[in-house]
Amino acid sequence: MAERERRITPPYGGAFVARSRVMDAADVRRAITRIAHEVVERNAGLDDAVVIGLQTGGVPLARSLVAELTRIEGAEVPLGTLDVAFYRDDIGLRPVMPEAVTDIPAELSGRTVVLVDDVLFTGRTIRAALDAVCDYGRPRAVQLAVMVDRGHRELPIRPDFVGKNLPTRRDEAVDVHLDGVDLGDLVRARR
Amino acid sequence: MRHLLAVDDLGSDGIEEVLRLTASFVEVSARAIPKVPTLRGRTVVSLFYEESTRTRLSFEAAAKRLSADTMNFNVGASSVHKGESLRDTVLTIEAMGVDALIVRHASAGVPAQVARWVQASVVNAGDGWHEHPTQALLDCYTLQEQLGRLDGRRVAIVGDVKHSRVARSDIAAFTSLGADVVVVAPPTLLPPSLAGWPVEVSHDLDGVLPKVDAVVLLRMQQERQTEALVPSLREYTASYGLTRRRAALLGERAVVMHPGPMNRGVEIAAEVADLPRSVVTRQVANGVAVRMAVLFLVLAAGAGS
């Protein structure tokens, strides 16, 4: 789930305060390069692949991944962005707002969809994303790439490609950017 | 946001939030399966004490595309004719388990009154001469889509301003987003006082048209006019109708809007309504997405806060 989204939602909200640096910019870049190679290897090429970044944290990572895939294979891979707000399972329990308009530029039926997100946590965002993707068509396969898998899954969902496995406490927070990954806490703003 | 009763409830930030959210729902509406599961298990009831085609159907389409259950209250076939009061009708419907009531009534203030009686969210779908906020929001979205932005744009609202809830809501919304509004009407079709309205007034449509970015034509509401306010419809058309000749006075990129239903040949010439610059069908399409945004805001976005 995008950290920004959590920042604006009161029950889980607060400002992110970094405690320790987990990956630096070079680590993130190398992880994306490795994941790109794994995607190509797993799919024996990139025919029919579509990369979809989840708003908002997954989008810059998806863009970098597509750039890497293009560099490695020399093939154009369509890039989409998906906002899962309308598919969340906690609508009505907390404020939910989409961050951006979804943009799926290609037909998904019969193709391999690679979902990209920054942090895999409970798995609920990915559950919502799977429902959303299936509203656009019937992909041949859906794969999941995340920069950080921090554990604490609440649904039977696992990633196919992982930048880094990061053991965390449930109350910690992980902040992912192209220029680095930090582990820290959400500090609630005082009223 | 719990209710949407008037444009001023939103403020300019609220209007912009609705417009941003509308863009997401325009994308949903363009899909092969234009439906999201967002309001599954919620019930939306249309309570229309006044006839309507597009607004009622538009709200119903919006609720269905959000996966809400919808119920329709048809006054003609209801216990209203057995003497049931508005309050009892509303409380009866609410007792069936309703999350949102879409209310239209010929009297101003009814949606606000209903909102005081119920726990459910209330959306004003038009009350008397007062307000029609979702129409103003869809007009804002359409103008933004056609003109890029409203700030600094000039919009003419032409016709029966006196009886028009659309005009009141449009003026509030357009000016709140920074547009300049000029109302054009014969003195008899203007409210007795325009004090406090942030608008210019003109009686010269030919002089106004070359300088505006958009024209909103209002329907001649003959059902609300209790006295002869214009000598004849033909005379009204001669002075204030958007004829073919007048449409040619508009700037190259100016658009023509109408909240519907149109009286072709009265406030708008039949062939003008079909010109490319007429965006009436865009208004209708955008109307569904705007109402999805409003239902989302009252039923989902704010919950828990």
Q: What would you note in describing this structure?
A:
The complex is a heterodimer of chains A (191) and B (305). Chain A is of the alpha/beta class and 191 residues long. Chain A has one domain: Rossmann fold, CATH 3.40.50.2020. Helix content of chain A is 27%, strand content 30%. In chain A, the strands form 2 sheets. A 5-stranded parallel β-sheet of chain A has the order 3-2-4-5-6. Chain A has a 3-stranded antiparallel β-sheet with strand order 1-8-7. In chain A, strand 7 and strand 8 form a beta hairpin. Chain A is globular, with a radius of gyration of 16 Å. Chain A starts with a helix and ends with a strand. The model of chain A is unreliable at 1-11 (pLDDT under 50). In chain B, helix 1 (11-29) packs across helix 10 and helix 2 (54-65) crosses helix 10 (280-301). The radius of gyration of chain B is 19 Å and the shape is globular. The model of chain B has no long low-confidence stretch (mean pLDDT 93). Chain B folds into 2 domains: 7-132 and 284-301, Aspartate/ornithine carbamoyltransferase (Rossmann fold, 3-Layer(aba) Sandwich); 133-279, Rossmann fold, CATH 3.40.50. Chain B is built from 10 helices and 9 strands. Chain B has helices spanning 11-29, 54-65, 86-95, 110-117, 133-147, 165-176, 205-208, 233-240, 244-247, 280-301, and strands at 43-48, 69-74, 100-105, 121-127, 154-158, 180-184, 200-202, 214-217, 255-257. Chain B has 305 residues and is an alpha/beta fold. Chain B starts with 10 loop residues before the first helix and ends with a helix. The interface between A and B is medium-sized, with 22 and 23 residues.
Class of the largest domain in chain B, according to the CATH hierarchy? Alpha Beta
On the 0 to 100 scale, the average pLDDT of chain A is: 91
Q: Mind summarizing the main beta sheet of chain A?
A: 5 strands, parallel
Number of helices of chain B: 10
CATH class of chain A: Alpha Beta
Mean pLDDT of chain B: 93
Question: Class by helix and strand content of chain B?
Answer: alpha/beta
CATH architecture of chain A: 3-Layer(aba) Sandwich
- Radius of gyration of chain B, in Å, reads 19 Å
Tell me the span between the first and last alpha carbons of chain A: 26 Å
Find the count of extended strands of chain A (DSSP E, 2+ residues). 8
The biggest beta sheet of chain B is recorded as: 5 strands, parallel
Query: What's the order of the H and E elements of chain A?
Result: HEHEHEEHEEEE
Overall form of chain B: globular
| CATH H-level homologous superfamily name of the largest domain in chain B | Aspartate/ornithine carbamoyltransferase
pLDDT < 50 runs, ≥5 residues of chain B? none
Number of discrete domains of chain A:
1
Number of helices of chain A: 4
